[in-house]
Design brief:
2 helices; 98 residues; 0% strand; mainly alpha; 2 domains
Amino acid sequence: MHEPWIVPIVFFAIFPIIFLGTPLARALARRWDRDAAAPKIPPEVMARLERIEQAVDSIAVEVERISEGQRFTTKLLTERTRDTTTDPAQAPTRGLTP
């Protein structure tokens, strides 16, 4: 029933399978992970995203210009208010003549 020579043959056949199969299985798993991790984005979508990115960048530049102008205007108004409140005798009378 039981052949005594089958155990050593199976034993020696399993070792090459394990030693060759493990690196092959790891390489296959890495390849599957790499393929799954790389997004498959169509070129049309990539081009559209690039245009959106450029539009957002130009909007950011314009907003910065507007905020710089706002800061300048605020600075001028602050200086003007400070000048009129520090020396009321020299403040302009804006059309009021005694």
